[in-house]
Amino acid sequence: GGCLFRHLLSLMFSCDAMLSCSGCFAQLQVLALNGCNISSWAQLQLLEPLLPSLEELYVASNTFSDLPIESYEQGYRDATGETVTEAPLVTGFRKLRILDVSACRLEEWSQVQAFGLLPSLQELILDGNEALRQVVPPGPDSFQTLYRMSLSGTG
Fold first, then answer.
1. Pairing of β 83-84 and β 30-32
2. pLDDT by residue (tens digit) across 33-83?
3. Predicted structure pTM score
4. How does DSSP classify residue 88?
5. E strand or H helix at 54
6. For residue 62, what are the CA distances in angstroms to 5, 99, 119?
7. Which of 130, 69, 71, 76 is nearest to 105 (CA)?
8. Rounded Cα–Cα distance for residues 36 and 140 (Å)
9. Which of 22, 40, 55, 103 measures 20 to 30 Å from 92, CA to CA?
10. Where are the alpha helices (DSSP H) in the chain?
């Protein structure tokens, strides 16, 4: 017995289904899910316990409808327009160094701020999010380890 993928370091999918194999992806360091029709960050958050060694996550050309959109009149509203009392948290992914959310239709800087508490994030790629117009300086507890942010093709 045993897992066939025990030593897998890189996995690239071109579909929107994730194999369910507890422990099989424990050593996986690079995951590319570009253009897989992922519609919410919550879907990725479900994978987090399966990927404890993940260092690079490429999720370009998806749409994260549940990242918070700040509305000055109403606090936060989700992508459906519903008012929410608390923004969804991007948690876990303790070893994640590189995150590519290029062309994910991010609209406001509050959506980018959602990634600010990832503890090891060094590089954030935001290319092609055309509606991102205003860069807001992060708070004192956000993006503590970030040294590179790419904003090509934004606002």
1. unpaired
2. 999 888 889 888 888 988 999 999 999 999 988 887 764 334 445 555 565
3. 0.78
4. P
5. none
6. 26, 13, 23
7. 130
8. 34
9. 103
10. 41-47, 109-113
Q: How far apart are CA 17 and CA 141, in angstroms?
A: 34
Write down the residue that tokens 């998806």 correspond to. 62
Note whether 41 and 17 are within 8 A (CB). Answer: no
Spatial separation of the C-alpha atoms in residues 92 and 96, rounded to whole Å = 9
| Sequence letter at residue 85 | T
- Determine contact, residues 147/123, Cβ cutoff 8 Å: yes
Residue type at 95? Answer: K
Identity (one letter) of the amino acid at 89?
L
For residue 91, the one-letter residue type is T
Q: How far apart are CA 117 and CA 94, in angstroms?
A: 10
